[in-house]
Design goal:
580 residues; mainly alpha
Amino acid sequence: MAASCALGSVLAFLRAREAGAPGRLGAGRASLYALSLALFALGFLAKENAVVVPGLLLLADLLVVRRRPAWRYHAASALTLALVLALRVHVLGGLNPAGSIHFIDNPIAHLPFVEGRLTALKVLARYAEALVWPARLSIDYSYRTISPPTGPFDPGVIIGAALATAWMAGVVLTWRRAPATAFALLWLGVTLAPVANFLFPIGTIMAERLLYLPSAGFCVLAADALARGSPPPGAATTRAPLGRRAVVARLIVGLVVVALAARSAVRLRDWRDDHTIFKAALGVAPESVRALFNYGSTCEEQGDDPSAVEAYQKALGVWPEFADAHYNLAGVLARQKKWQESVDHYREALRQQPGDVRYLVNLAHSLMGINRHGEARDLLRRAIDIDPKSALAYTNLGAAELALGEAAAALLAYTEAVRLEPGNADYLRNLGVAQRGAHDPGAADSFRKALLIRSGDPDLQDGLGLTLLDAGDAPGARDALEQAVAARPAHPVYRYHLARALEQSGNFQGAAGQYREAIRLAPTAPLPYKALGVLLDRLGDRDGALSALERAEALDSGDSVMDATTRALLAALRRGAARP
């Protein structure tokens, strides 16, 4: 947008200057001048590098128009520049407000002055390569795509210095002899200067988008070179046939244009999606930390966690102080239940950015994965001290309090999370679970509110069903649990809960069927066997009850399912005695 507006501003100005002899300002020319100024302002508001437009306009007047400069217009251009700069100060709080430039994005900002400028010369050589033949393009040039120079005689530095010297010599030699060529050269240099990291460091060491505006000067230079072998406009059309050199030159130009068009077509295929473009970037810059990080993120989105882990680990191998890479890697490891490794990477991320609430919350989550609930609670309270509006911290604090047996504290934390984000179905579900555990009658309402947000969610239907079952509303529980089973029929827990509701409703045969289906889906779970055995004994099927309870006992390795009453029933069935 900035490049297009800048080009439009200069073209509108040149058209205005061509529209009649200088002197009194006509309405048509005034409109073109106004359009030129408006396009400049829009370009600056789109991107700051359009700040060079007033300079380009003055150079165009001096070197292309070559009449008495339109000083009133240039004064208006300067005033427009002052206004947009004032607007920038008003919005951002300063002309160029200080902001941290990450070492990864632009190492030049962190290098000593001389070494930084030598690196900028290396980047200049890369820019020239991209303009002349863009064979290897990348969306990202962050650390370590362009390494700092080994010294002033580094090949990249020498090439960059030679290009800068040639540019200055070209401007001097053409200023009077070929002013239009000088204008194209100056366009190239003036538009590149603010983003070349020579005058001051910017947010990136190199980016192809920064060549959009400078490339216009390069294109004009190429056109100027080609035009030198052609007759001037308006010349007689009758001329001698082209010489062999001219034919060869035009043939070469045609082949280059075709080759560049083909390169563009091939490059477009890299832009299908984020995953493809960052994978292509790694083909050009395999040690680009930012490209590795972003590629890892896209692998996560595609469910390819092994590739994501590999990418994050490579990024950390290049730059171990990359907190976000530690954070993302920890998240993948947590999904894989590698809790201790996850904790280690979260701690490293937190060491680098100790006030990051996300890091604190997720570290606490991983600590809960290894049953360190007290430490997790302390971290979550610290996160809330930093950001009292973090609903995520509150809902995790509720889980930690619940694990520590502090039901009342858990209920308060979950309630606060819902207050902060009332439209979050997960937070409402967590609150409902805590309320159910505390026998709070509001639990059913929490689940119903969550279902209004995420209609048909089987987990929420299951939670509502269990809450209604605890409250003695067996028909309501049955309806909710039937919807959960219909949404996810292969879920054994839903089947077990539905069987309980059916049994409480008096539908014993239906309950037995659901218990059997739960056993089919989870044949190593002892709980459905126990429930089925008790129900079959109640129905008078002693052999079936004995078989189910014996299976439950065999699977209950931790003695957590078979209570004293059930064991007494099993003993009686084994003795063939009547039920005690």
